[in-house]
Amino acid sequence: EAGVAQSPRYKIIEKRQSVAFWCNPISGHATLYWYQQILGQGPKLLIQFQNNGVVDDSQLPKDRFSAERLKGVDSTLKIQPAKLEDSAVYLCASKAASIKNEQFFGPGTRLTVL
Amino acid sequence: SQQGEEDPQALSIQEGENATMNCSYKTSINNLQWYRQNSGRGLVHLILIRSNEREKHSGRLRVTLDTSKKSSSLLITASRAADTASYFCATDEGAQKLVFGQGTRLTINP
Questions:
Q1: Three-state SS for A70?
Q2: pLDDT tens string A76-113
Q3: Could you tell me whether strands A10-13 and A109-113 are parallel, antiparallel, or unpaired per DSSP bridges?
């Protein structure tokens, strides 16, 4: 089966600019996650969707970050305006509705804010 | 918030040796998982151990869980160069949400 797809793989922007990331989860996976991974750290959950509804966005900086999952499939994560500290890898993951809690990760988008 | 704390932060061993990584956590869990991340890639699920299990094996991987000490260990036997990666423990806090630790960077020297 095809894995989680993300684009772009790399993005360089200047501070105060806007940027958007796209994620296509594994077909049939109802749950979708966006994580932020700062260099040298573990992934930190930003937002979790169940179908097209938000389950948890408690760690999403809502003044500048937004995410949507229209139609319960693809998802986009946007940062507007970007700050230097937003430089990180943004990982998308998806999970099937099963007992096991295994998540499947995409390759990530590496964002550099100058 | 980061729940798991991996130890050591970095580990360098010779090919063929065994590698042991430890993870400590703070709250009650449903299960604990280990993931591997190769440089520049996403995370790959390795193994899941439930809170009522004490030990689990998968190939060259052995995971233990001690809920009384809130700790887990990942043992990789007969290491290979391809095992060079970062390894993360992740605790299931319910509602299908995982909380990852800081990771252990493992380097296997040929």
A1: helix
A2: 999 999 999 999 999 999 998 775 678 999 999 999 99
A3: parallel
